Amino acid sequence: MPDPVLTSWRPRQRSAAAAVRGVSLLLHGGRADDTRPVERQHASWWRMALLGRTLARATVPQGVAVELLRYRARGWNDGPGAEPGPVLDGRWALRAVRERYGDVPVVLVGHSMGGRGACALADADGVTGVVALAPWLTAGEPVRPARRQRLVIAHGLADRWTSPGGSLEWARRARSVGARVARYEMGAVGHFMLTDAGQWNGLVRDATLGLLGVAPLPAEMAQALQSPAGDAGLRLNPTW
After folding, report:
1. Of 13, 5, 8, residue with least CA distance to 23
2. How far is Cα 64 from Cα 21, in angstroms, rounded to an integer?
3. CA-CA distances (angstroms) from residue 166 to 16, 20, 111, 172?
4. I need a surface site. Which of 62, 76, 111, 159 has the fewest CB within 10 A?
């Protein structure tokens, strides 16, 4: 099985680490069970590469590097006695980011299975926020890693691959253990963030810059992240 790989967009200066104020680490989607290697032509990786290029145009000039992780295998591949493959690869990527850029804040941006992985990694050292896009969050998905973390969740209501109701239920449970959550309902759009792409891109841009402290958070997002347990701020409409 090949090693995980990072694709990078970063400030172009002599010392990349010195120029970087924060990092957005992107985690792509996948399948429940599949041990085959991830290839660049696979739709799950390609979609996040497209998002990475768009995000980098807005964030790299402000000193934010964008790193896209390519997992060793396509599947979540959950089994007894070990963390799922994308979570292990995510921990590898966080170590690599730390070695490359030093002690800078990191925001995890995950789509689908990557959103599930980002939520599982929410308590990792240096992570200052999570952006979960159409996340694959099941009824039994743990919320403990999200305690005291800030999470922005976005889900299309016509998603047939992952459940918007599941992400709402998970957000409620996460709030009950102390997570701070802003959740957007993106309207009657599907899973792959191609319909109304500008709204998805704008949300990711503003959430990333705000969670890294590079720019202010949008007012409604900041307010939702301060809301106590309950549904306030869990059915936000996109404003981009």
Report:
1. 8
2. 6
3. 39, 35, 15, 10
4. 62
CATH T-level topology, domain 5-225 = Rossmann fold (3.40.50)
Q: Which amino acid is at 10?
A: R
**DSSP characters over 115-146:** HHHHHHTTTSTTEEEEEEES----TT---GGG
Helix residue ranges, H only, 151-218: 164-176, 197-211
Q: Stretch 138-155: mean pLDDT, rounded?
A: 96
Is the separation of the CB atoms in 114 and 131 below 8 Å?
Answer: no
Nearest to 153 by CA among 138, 168, 175: 168
Please report the sign of the dihedral spanned by the C-alpha atoms of residue 136, residue 101, residue 205, residue 67. negative
d(C-alpha 23, C-alpha 64), whole Å = 5
Average of per-residue pLDDT values in the chain = 95
Contact present, 93 and 6 (Cβ < 8 Å): yes
Judged against a pLDDT cut of 70, whether residue 18 lies above it is answered with no
- Specify the pTM: 0.96
Residue 162 reports pLDDT greater than 70: yes
Report how far residue 24's alpha carbon sits from residue 5's, in angstroms, rounded to the nearest whole number.
15
Per-domain boundaries in the chain: 5-225
- Angle between the N-to-C axes of helices 113-120 and 85-101, in degrees from 0 to 180, rounded to the nearest 10: 70
Length of the chain: 240
DSSP 81: T
Average pLDDT over residues 134-156: 97
As a whole number of angstroms, the distance between CA 94 and CA 110 comes to: 14
